Each structure stands twice: as structure tokens, then as C-alpha cells.
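Troubleshooting log. The previous run stalled partway through. Resubmitting the same three chains, unchanged.
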Amino acid sequence: MSVVAAIPQSAERAAPKNIGDRALRIVLKAAALAIVLLVLAMAFEMVRTSVPSMRTFGWSFLVTSTWDPVAERFGAIPFVYGTLVSSFLALLIAVPLGLGAAIYLAELAPARIRPPIAFLVELVAAVPSVIYGLWGIFVLAPLLRTWVQPALGKTLGYLPLFQGPPYGVGMLAAGIILAIMVVPYITAVSREVLLAVPNTQREAALALGATRWETTRIAVLRYGRSGLVGAILLGLGRALGETMAVTMVIGNRPEVAISLFAPGYTMASVIANEFTEATSEIYLSALIEIGLLLFVLTIVVNALARLLVWSVGGPVKTVRE
Amino acid sequence: MTPGVRRRVNVLMSGLAAVAAGLVILPLLLIFGFLLWQGASAVNVDFFTHLPKPVGEVGGGMANAIVGSLILIALAAALGLPLGILGGVYLAESRDRHIPWLARFLADVLNGVPSIVIGIFAYTVMVLPMRRFSALAGAFALAVIMLPIVMRTSEELVRLVPASLREAALALGIPEWKVLLRVVLPAARAGIVTGAMVAIARVAGETAPLLFTAFGNRFWHQGLDQPIAALPLQIFAYAIAPYDDWHRQAWAGALVLIGLVFVVSLAARMATSGRFTGVR
Amino acid sequence: MRRWLRAMVLVLTGCSWLVAPAPAYAQMLMNGAGATFPYPIYSKWFDEYTKVDPEVRFNYQSIGSGGGIKQVTSRTVDFGATDGPMTDEQLKQAPGELLHIPTVLGAVVATYNLPGAPKLKFTGDVLADIFLGKITKWNDAKITALNPGATLPDQPIVVVHRSDGSGTTYIWVDYLSKISPEWQQKVGKGTSVNWPVGLGGKGNEGVSGQVKGQPGALGYVELAYAVKNNLPVASIKNAGGKFVEPTIATTTAAAAGAAKSMPDDFRVSLTNAPGDDAYPVASFTWLLVYKDQPNETKGRALAKFLWWMSHDGQKYADDLLYAPLPGPVVKQIEGKIKQITYQGKPLMAGR
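Second attempt completed without errors. Output:
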């Protein structure tokens, strides 16, 4: 076990001599293997069900934008686009807010209000997504339709991002709702990561004359970087897979459109919307293939995120003291 | 940079951080406020003790859904928490070459799978062979959703326990497995519990994976291998109906759900608080 | 020590939920799944029926018509429910013969959001053209021709349809397919279709919410949603040439008109039904049961419920804004119920 991580070790460790260590090693490995098998089983199941669709449409599935259940012609582009854009928008809003809130709660807030606010933030994660969706229809969409979208249209309307009639529902609403849903994960986990950074790090920076913010930036954030990336990826995963709330406010139009005001459609939404009614084999298979695509997309996005962090600051795995 | 500039940057960033925290809380308050405004009137004794009634009749409640949700959460936690925490510890501690990388990667991918797809998987794996919907199938689906959150958080928090702590214990001659269980895990405990609570909060509100597994039940369940009611399912059924009375009950249900998670979180915190709340 | 004590207490409290016996029931639980549209009246019926037969409990969950068809085919539930009749291929996939038993009627209405909430008239052609995207403005000549008294603004029509697969959609596009050859050819009918224009709202609730909030919107929802949300509903021209408002009476009239030519298996489309009073976008909703039941007690309970439903149950329909079955159809249903068997023996003999 790599309990003594700071001391350079040979790559392999000798087999432990006592029962306790061996037993623990086996149990831990078994747990990890169980999880690996679970995910592989799920992937296998999805591939198996997608085979009819893959056979019928082949690669054209990835480049067609029609979605016609009656004529049984299916293509995935609008959904891929919608998922990517809505998730990206959500992270754009949620990461600064979430990290900022986490920093506030971990470093800057008066001690007494920290626990209740932290607790509240965790509770947001419990709100059922259908409630978010309904709140989105009754509160957020009208707000966007009446105030925000017209204002954006007037001031930034020369950008293709903010053109088109203000429906209220659409990509912007979806991005905002997703951001709200994702922020508690980022905040809660980031806060824990920041709190786990040893005080010696902070004290060292302060002793050198750093301000509070500089301490946070130099000593705390950098030290906890790996954990923070983990928190963000957690949020990203949620954004990619969120179904109910998004489908209620995104307008559900399988079309690729540049404007944030336009309606869109995500992969998770189309599966949720049409799965229960998909009774023909090819229809079902096409929907599951979309699920498989989402799987692949998550892999790609995760890999890219890791590469990004790697290139910016070195491997994220070492624990320093 | 001059000290003056640095001081001002400090104030600015502190202010921004506070604003961020405020903005994070804002939608929460808005949604809470919305739920309270719409549903508080429907939260009464009947709500907690009665079964659902058809539309138009007074005194309906969600008692079976409340109990059902508690049961599903408990079962899912029993399945998902140990596996997730052990998996996370493995990822943080192991020196194996291939499995850690693979497990971490797959856990991240699993995190992005829509809950409905996990529900479909649980349906194929549990409902079809058993030929019936059941609480067990629902708990299985929820446990799978919990896994990546618990794993990720546990891994990161265990990893952040300083090496000095471990080295000190090892230097005293304590075997590695004891160091893990008695020194490292307690030090990471607060963070792991947070991860667990976030995971529980998430699955408490999930509807889609339960549609095809736990199925829902208008009445009390008759065994864990039978359909069982759950708050999110009942909320969903009421929220999409055309009747105001049912809408109010849906909002009330959401309030109760949040309250439920609140209580569970509080209990977990109390049970695990102690001398070690992180190395600070 | 105190910590462990606290943890133990919590664990025990937790386990007590699991172990606490659900109130011991001698009753049999029957599970059913399917359409969302009739959920309110089914829940009313199943609740009332516990007073009629305290030995049985019916647990119905609305997961959608397609879900109902799939689950009853896989035999994970005892009965299914659907707004759209099963196709021949779907019936072939079932392990036994499935019967369609109509329960109530519903109407799908066109609802809109215009200043002053004028009462509008539409024909099927105009509606099809709107949903095809050929008519884009409220003051289009075709619409004003039908509504000379109303002030129609020079605004684009924001079409709202369903994003999720649904029986409501099926009924709507079934009607449009009958009226408009262009719709039939370009879009066709199904529980989900490739909508040429418009926003998708999730569920009837999503559509009515969207229409309510969006000036200039036009969508289709079940009658109950329009009424409960105080949305204006349009009159539509029926096969008899009259403009008919969607009411309970006109919906039942649609079934009465079709009763004479009702097929034996009840799989009929009631859209554009003949008759002067018939509302043209109406439909049955059905329960799906196996003709040969796998379990005798359950089968008998099911048959008895179906009998009660088609007679006494009908009186609950009006209040919940569903149209009751017309007399001749009830008679035909009786005959069908008598055909339900267990291992060849009819379960409702001698009634």
C-alpha cells in the first residue's frame, strides 16, 4: 500500500507479511473490480441493444440530423450538440460560482455561518429534478422571456448567440437550470477539499506576508488542485446526464442552432422522453445508441479535461507535504 | 505589485467569493420559497399518515411514499456506500498498475450516465429475471448512481490526508491496515461523510431510475420484492396532472423530501462528528 | 464509546423501517401500468373499488402507453393501459392474446394564447397547415376567413407540441393524418413524430404551461388540462360539417357515432367520427388484459373489476372531465369480458 507516498519506492511492493494487510488489499481490490465490472456490464448491455440500430444506420447515425420515429430514420447530431452546449454553458456558470462559494465557505466566511450555509448548499442537491423543471417552467422561463432575453437581445443582439425570438425556454434556460443543479456538487466537494489542505500550508504563506487571497491562491488552491478537478468533473457528469429538468425547459427541438435563445435537445432528454413509448425494435435501439454515444462522449470529455489539467500544472496524482 | 494593490486585490477577491456564495444560495432560497409558498398549506398530519387519495377527496397523503423513500435510500446506501468508500480508498492507496486508472476512469464515466439509462440497466438485470418490479431493483439502480460520487469524494479526501500522519503511525510500528482504518480514514471522515450525503441527496430525488424498477405503489408495500412507493415518483405523478390540489401535494412532497434529506444528513453528521474533523 | 452508542442507535432506528411489517394484508395486489391520460379516473376507480371488493388492491402507475404495452407484454404487470391501440406486430409479440377493453373517452383540444382570449374556429386543414409550418401568422387569410369577428394580431404562431411520446400526440396526429394528405405523407402518425415546427413541452402540463406563458402560442392538450388552467379551447369542424366545441357530450357523441361500426376487438380510431354532434379529436382509452389469465383468483378479480368499471364506474367520469362510454359500447364490452378465461374456463359465466 502506498501509505508512505513521499519516499521514493520501487514500482512494486513486496507482498505484505501479515494477514490484516493482505485481507485489506484483497477487499479493496475486490471493491474496485466490482465497480469496473459493473460499468463494463452496463456498456456491454448498451452495445448489445444498439446493434440493430448500428447495423441499420452505420456511421451515418453520427452525422444525420433527422429524428423521425414514424419513418424510422434517426440521427444523433442535434442531441450531441445540445448536450455539449448546455453542459458547457452550465459549467461556465457553475465553476466560478461553485469554486468561489467553496473558497468563501472554507477560507473567508465567519466561522459561525459556515456550517449552516454549507449544509444548505448540500440540501440543494436533494431537490428532485422534476421540481427544478417545474420551477424552470413557472419561474425561470417567464423571467427569461419577459426580462432577460429582450435585454440581452437589445444590448448584445449583434452576436449570433443572442438572436431570435424570446421563447423563455431554450438553450439558455437549460444552461442556467443545469448550472443551478450542478453548483452544489462543485461547492460541497471543493469545500471539503479546501478544508483538508493542512494549515501548515496556509501558515507558511501567511508567514511570508501573503494576503488572505494570495494565501488561498498560492497555498490552498494549488495544493488541492486534484481534488478540485475531481469536484468539477463530478459536476460535469451531472450536467451531461441530467434529464428531467432539462427536458422541461429546453424546448425539445432536434435542431442545431447557434443562438442561445433557440430551443435545443439533449441526448439524455430524448432518451427520457421517448423511451417509454418506443415500442419498435429499431426505435429502441436508436435511443440506446444515443445512450451509448453519451457514454463515449463522457469518456472523451473526461479525458480532455484531464489532459488540460495535466498540461497546465503537471500530473495531478502526487500528494506533497 | 505594491502592497496597496495587493491589499485591494485581496478585498476584491474576498468580495467576489462572498458574492459567489450568495449567488449559490440564491436559487436555493428561491426554490425553497417557491415550494413553501405553493405547498406549505398541504403539509399537515394527514400528509404524513394517509395514503394517496383520488383527486377531489380531502385528506390524502404520501405516507407510503415517505416510508418507501426511506427504505429505498437505506437499501441503496447499504449497497452503495461501502462499495464506494472501499473503491475510493483503493484508488487513493493502491500501487497497482492498471486497475486504479481503469476504475477511476470508469467511475467518472458512470457519473455521466443519465439516471434513466441506469434505470433501464437495472430493469434488464433485476426486473426482467425476477418478472416483477421491486424495491430491491430500485435500490440497486440508486446504489449504482451513488457509486461514482462516493468513490470520487472518498478518493480525493483520503489522498489529502498528509503523509506525515501516516508516517508517524507507521514509525510507531502499527501495521498498514490499522493505519488505514484507525488513522487515515478517521482523518478523512468528515469529507467522506459529505460525499455520502451528497450522494444520498442526489438519489433521494431521482425519479427516472425508479420508474422501471421500484415502479411505485398506491398502497403499502408488501415486501422488498414488490413494487414500492417513493416520494419522487408520487411527486412526479401529481406534478404533471391538471389538478391544483395534486399540485399542492406535489410541492408539499418536495418539501418533505428535502426535510427527509436534511434529517438524514444531520443524523449522519452527528454520528460521525468527533475529535477528527479534518486536519485543521 | 458515546460515538459508537450514537451510531448504534441510528443504525437500529434505520433498520426498524426495514423490519417494520407493512400492515399485514390479506388482500391481493394487482399491478397495472400504462397511459397517463386516464390516471386520475383510474385512481378514483381503484380507490372506490376497494370498498366494493376489499380483498383486492389495484396498483396503477402511469408510465406511458408504450410502457404499459411493453410491461404487459413482458408480463411484469397484471394489466396494461394505453391511449393508442396496439398494432398487429405488437399483439404478435405478446405471449398470449391481449384484449382491448375501452374504459372512458377523452378529447384532445387546441388551445392558444391570444389577447382577449377570443373563441376561435378551426378546420382540420388549417390546423394541419399550422403544424406543418405553412401557416405562420395569426392573421393569415385562412384563419381570418374562419373567424371574421375576432381580432387576430399580425404575430407569428408559436406552435407547441409534446416532446415526450404520448397517446395524446397519437390522437392529435391521427386526426391530422386523416384530414391532410400532406401531413400523412410528410409526418405521419405515432406517439412521437418528426414535428416540422414548434417547441416541445414535456407532458400535458408542459404544453399547457408553455401555451399559458407564451403570447401567440398554439398547442394541443387533453381537455382536462385546458379547463383546469383556464385556457381557451377552439371549436373544430367535424365530419358532419359543424363546428363543435370539445365537451363531454360531444366526446361521447363521437363514440356513439362509431358504435355501429365498432370492430370486435375495439381497436378503432374515433378521430373525425361521423355525426353532427361528434367532436372530431376524441378517442377511447383502453385497458389491456390477457384473454387467458395465468392465475384464477387474480383473473376473476380482474374480470369483476372490468364489469364494475364499465357499469358503475362510468358515473365518476363526468366530474373528472372524461366522457363515459355510450350504451351500445358497454353492451359489447360485456360480451368481451365474458370471454376472459382461466385455462379455458370463462371467469364471468352466468351474469
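Takeaways: Chain C has 13 helices and 13 strands. Chain C has a mean pLDDT of 86.
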